[in-house]
User: What shape does this take?
Amino acid sequence: MGRTHVDPVIETVSERLEQEVLLHCKKAETVGASFGVVRDGELVWTYGYGFKDLDGDKAPAADTLFRVASITKTFTATAIFLLRDRGLLNLDDPLARHIPEFANAIPLKGDLETVTLRRMLCHRSGLMGYAPTGEVYWDSHSWPGMSEILDVIPEIEVSIEPDSAFKYSNLAFGFLGEVIARVSGRPYDEFISSEIFEPLGLESTTFEPNAELKSRTATGYRHKPYEEAPEVTPFPSLGGQVAMGQLYSTVEDLARWIIVHLGPATGEEPDSDVLTARSRVEMQHPLFLEEDWSAGYALPWMMRRENDATIRGHGGAIHGFGSNISFIVGRRMGVIALFNRVFDPKEISSKIFEIVIEAEDALTVQEPNKKPSTTPPELREYLGLYHGTFEIMWKIEFRDDTLRTTIMLGDVVAPPVVLKPTEEPDIFRAASGRLSGDRIVFTRADDGTVSGVIAEAMLFRRLSETPGRSG
Assistant: This one.
């Protein structure tokens, strides 16, 4: 186990985390695995299981490289947003605007103009999964170059109506890589390396490991029928499909990547070196939900709900490797799980989240009580109970160092909303909820005392009480 600094939550659960990892790894019959937990902008726990390769005795470490397969798609998507923020493309551009050859594809359903970059990013474009070159890539390990893919565009189909259903398409991300190359005027891998890896210090993330990185790369394995010892899997390059799954990375680098997408702590600079706050939020916003709300799809994050938490993430599977990165924005927490055999790590990732969240909540409960917040004199006059249209009640309080309102309708009580002051007297702005960003205007009686509050075109009158006392 390793930690970058002592974390009070991890201190209480490190042994339990190790036990859960051991159980899951044995169940998966993996050769080796590497794990990491991110909290509050730091990699606070790492663990290596088994063997980096069977030629040696070393367990994988936080700096061991694994193929991370489709986690590559999160870098490709980020590059598309980066180019959007530079004014070089729009998410709703049809693919054919940037790859004119695509005008010759076959729209079995819908219209080629509806195959947009946005739909491709969340697998709602209807595009078939792979280019029909006649090669069975996964078995032959011979992947076509982009020129070969472009040559077969007249045989490429939009198989289902765009937006009609989730349809995973590696081909779509191969094309997004070509869009990045054409719009930027640079090879896809060069653009990603110089515009994302280098600014973020991802020195162990690469499309093809050099000699030094190869020495730190885990060997991928697959099990053979009827035998205990696995065999080494091939390490093919994905040719024209590098943008969908070529990357190698480490727990350390993927922790930095998660931290970028978790965003900053309150009060810190909102933009990262590669991604604006606007784009970060947009990438995580669900565009589609399954009918039963069991899963959602963003750009390109996959979303699931577990134990009242919304988990965003992306997995990857390729010969000899399975991977997953996941994060919970509200808790600024993330989990990395990398295996050197094909395996879906979502189950162990979810268990790690469960253990850490449970410990985090327990520690919060145990924190010593803080002294009560003293209400600033200039805010005290707003405190009280207000009554208005539809029998709605507003309770204005000063709690946790903020002026806030709790809105009540009968037995229904909405979560508290912080009211942020403005430069204008008696005018505030709501910080969250349906009122988020709206003006909240307090009114005054002829004698100058606060008499009401206006919001959503409704007036809520202050109930008769001594001004300045909390209701």
